[in-house]
Design a protein that fits this description.
six-stranded antiparallel beta barrel; four-stranded antiparallel sheet; 7 helices; Elongation Factor Tu (Ef-tu), domain 3; 3 domains; 31% strand; binds zinc ion
């Protein structure tokens, strides 16, 4: 106890030095506490002590538990209202502050508690990471053939249009052949139509021949369009097709087709290897843009009503000691019959790529609450006797500490769930300077010797 008391004196000295150094804003009077041994043993609020040591602090009713008006009506041993007594007011948690130390330029600032929308309610769910289906493609081979090259391995990041596989397909060879044949037919039909037109103009050919030549030309044009379309469907780019038209050497009749990434993403799996046979329509690999992933979480039946309209609400996904921001997309309309849970789907930002499909994660979902709460700066709240309190304005220069119950912290503010009203002015900053005023005397109570 002696050690503790010494510590508090030391703190008081620091406070006095601080106040004096800052220009003596505090009225000196209120810093003058009675020496501890003069502390009244007969304060009105002290319940009868047990005979003997006279050190029974447990029996003393804290000012935090006494009604303010009762304390305000009390007289001290000096025969004056206790709050007016420079020596005794600390016993009722009261300080007297000169107006000069308050305000923007003072050491101590005051203000009203702020009203805020009640802190969002948090729901905790557990879930599993999955691909975002809207950002995932399963790349299949458009043709059957031999895989001659493989350009990527699982885990690789690819851009849209990057080559994935090269396949040598007889179908492609054949389609190229058909295309070249159609080109030749078109060329002939074009010449024929031109010649018939010329002869008709010279009245050598009949009109019916011209019409026939034009019909064949139209047919050849349709055929070429169909051939081009078939080549594109088989996986050739328009550039590849044009290269055939231009008659670029070996490109013309080989059966090679390059399968390209239809979108940017990460190669998730791809078991097809060089030398294997690819089948038309069979998946070669999965490509997913993992910058956003889905988390599928189980929602209990009882929670459904709360989350029902929660689409778009913010969520935080936690895994591997990291946090990821997300959003509730949707909650499934039906419950699983076995687990009695429904699936909630979250879109989660995974720009760093740390979340992998299949990983188990914890989800914190925030739902706005309906009511308002009072918040005060954290620095306004002090602790004593295992209780938390703030200094509230009583009247004139008098401020009195009152117990408050705390809710959640929000940045530098903390919710006050009970103890003060929105209209009650409090010390918002600098209250720590006053704490020792109401504590120092207490520490001395009955323990001076
Ligand atoms: Zn007194």
């Amino acid at each position: 106890m002696i050690q503790k008391k010494t510590m508090f004196f030391a703190i008081s000295i620091v406070v006095i030095a601080t106040l004096a150094g800052a220009g003596g804003f505090l009225a000196a009077e209120h810093l003058q506490h009675p020496p501890a041994h003069e502390k009244s043993q007969n304060a009105a609020h002290t319940v009868p002590e047990q005979e003997g040591d006279g050190h029974d602090h447990e029996a003393e009713v804290s000012d935090l538990d006494r009604p303010v008006e009762e304390m305000w009506a009390a007289f001290c041993e000096h025969g004056i209202p206790q709050h007016q007594c420079d020596e005794c007011r600390y016993e009722i948690g009261t300080v007297k502050l000169a107006p000069s130390i308050l305000g923007d330029n003072g050491l101590v600032r005051t203000g009203l508690p702020e009203k805020r929308q009640e802190r969002q309610q948090e729901h905790r769910l557990s879930g599993e990471v999955q691909f975002d289906d809207t950002r995932t493609v399963r790349v299949a081979s458009p043709v059957s053939g031999l895989i001659t090259r493989r350009f990527v391995t699982p885990g690789a990041q690819v851009a849209a249009g990057s080559p994935l596989f090269e396949i040598d397909s007889p179908e492609v060879t054949e389609a190229k052949g058909s295309y070249l044949k159609a080109k030749a037919t078109l060329s002939l039909a074009t010449q024929s139509a031109a010649r018939e037109s010329r002869l008709f103009a010279q009245k050598i050919a009949a009109e019916v021949d011209v019409q026939e030549a034009r019909a064949k030309l139209a047919e050849a044009e349709a055929e070429i369009a169909a051939s081009r379309g078939r080549l594109v469907r088989l996986g050739l780019s328009k550039t590849d097709v044009d290269a055939i038209s231009a008659g670029n050497g070996s490109a013309v009749l080989n059966g090679l087709v390059v399968i390209r990434a239809p979108r940017k993403g990460t190669v998730i799996e791809g078991n097809a290897a060089s030398g294997e046979q690819a089948e038309a329509g069979k998946e070669l690999l999965t490509l997913s843009d993992l910058e956003t992933v889905w988390v599928m979480a189980d929602v209990k039946e009882a929670e459904l009503a709360v989350l029902g309209n929660g689409s778009g609400k913010d969520a935080v996904v936690e895994a591997m000691e990291h946090s990821f921001t997300g959003r509730l997309d949707a909650v499934a309309g039906r419950l699983s019959e076995t687990t009695r849970t429904a699936k909630a789907r979250f879109s989660v930002n995974n720009a760093d790529g740390l979340l992998k499909p299949g990983m188990f994660v914890s989800v914190r979902l925030f739902m706005p609450a309906k009511g308002e709460v009072l918040v005060v700066p954290k620095v306004a709240v002090l602790a004593d006797e295992g209780r938390t309190f703030v200094f509230t304005h009583k009247e004139g220069d008098y401020w009195i500490r009152r117990p408050v119950s705390l809710g959640a912290s929000i940045d530098s503010m903390v919710e006050i769930t009970s103890g003060i009203t929105a209209e009650q002015r409090i010390i918002t900053d600098g209250s720590f300077l006053l704490k020792s005023d109401v504590l120092r005397g207490k520490m001395g109570a009955g323990c001076a010797d």
